[in-house]
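re the bet — no i am not wrong, look at it urself. input seq straight from the record:
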Amino acid sequence: MDAEVIVLGAGIVGLATALQVQAKGRSVLLVDKGEPGAATSFGNAGIIERASIYPYAFPRKLGDLFRYAMNRETDAHYHWSALPKAAPWLVRYWAASSRHGHEGAMRAALPLIENCLSEHEPLIAAADAGHLLRRTGWIKTFRDPGKLAEESAAAERIRPFGLDIAFLGPEELAAAEPHLRPGLAGGIHFKDPANIADPQELSRAYLRLFEKRGGRFLQGEAMTLHRHGAEWCVRTIEGHAHARDVVVALGPWSPDLVRRLGYDLPLGVKRGYHMHYAPQGNAVLNHTLYDGDGKYVLAPMLKGIRLTTGAEFADRDAPPTPVQLARVEPKARAFFPLGDRLEKDPWMGSRPCTPDMVPVIGPAPRDPGLWFAFGHAHHGLTLSAVTGRLIAEMIAGEDPFCDPTPYRADRF
C-alpha cells in the first residue's frame, strides 16, 4: 500500500498529474471515492482551449452589472440564498477583474495556456485515445454585425500570441456549418484549440494508461489524509496508504480537505449544466459553436450534440436548478435543428474558481510533501496535463518549465 506519491482526486487534473508524476519514475497511487472522470470532468464543452488567452472576468460596467443583478441572463444565474456566503469571494473576483488585474491574470496563466495542448498530445497518443481528438477548433457566431466587429477586434488583439484565427462572413460560415439557421452576420474561427469528443472517455483512457504503466487506482476517502511521521497517510478500501508526497487535486472539493489541514484558501464555485440532443433529420454539426448572442455552447460529441450553459453561482451541494438550460434550449433550437433530448435529466457539475482567475499549483506553504493542484475554473480539461507537468517537475526537484510563483497558495 505504499507509494512514493499519492494523488487525491481522479478527475482529469488528478489523472493527468498522476501520469506526469509517473513519467518521472515515481510510483503513484491514485485515490478517489468515486469513479474516475465522473464528476466535474464529465461535463464540459470538450475543448482544450489553447486560444483562451484571457480568463473569464467579472463584469465591471454598470450596465452589465445591472443586467446580471436582474438574474434573467442566460450566461449567469445565481441563488439568492448563496449570496451571503459567496459575497466575499465575489468582491475579490470583481476587484481582480480590473484592467490591471485581468492583464496580470492573463500573464500569469499564459505559460500554462501556451503549453496546454502540447502536453496533452503525447498522453492522448500513448493512451490510444486519438479517436477522441478533433482538430477543428471552435467558432463564435453573431447575428449582430456590430457585436461581430467588436469581438473581431478583440480576437485581433490576441492573434500575436501565436494563434490562427479566421474571420468568417455569412457565406463562409454557412459553408462551414450548412445546417445553421440563416440570418447570421458571421463568425470567428479559433483554429488552435483541439476538441475531445467524449471528456469522460478521455479520463478513462488516461486511467488505463496509468494502470498499464504500473499505477494503482483505489477508492478511498481523501478527508482522512493526515501526517504519519515523515509520511502522509490516507484510508482506502484496501487499508491505509502512505507516501512521502501527496497531491490534492480534488477540484471543487479541495477546500474541504485543505481547510482541515489549516489552509483557508478563497475557492469559489461556478456550477454548470449540459444536455445531449439528437440532430433533426440529416443535420450535422461540424464544429463546436459558441452562440455569442444566446451565450451557450453546442458541441458535437459521441453521445450526441451537447448543449452547455454558462455559470450558476450557488452552493456547491445545493440541488440542481437548470434554469439556464431552460432559457437557452429554445435559443439553441432556433440556431440549429436539435431533435429530442437524449437524457432524462440535465447533468450538473461544479467548477473550482479562485478570485484572481489563476489556479493554485505548487507546494503547501507549511507542510513538506503536500502539493496543491486545483482552482482551474473553466479550464480543468485544458490545463490538466500542463498542471501535471509543473507538479511533476517540482516533486522531482527539477527546474520547472515556467516560474511557478504566480500559482503559489500563499499569494492570498
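see?? The mean pLDDT is 97. told u. also The first strand starts at residue 5 and ends at 8. so pay up
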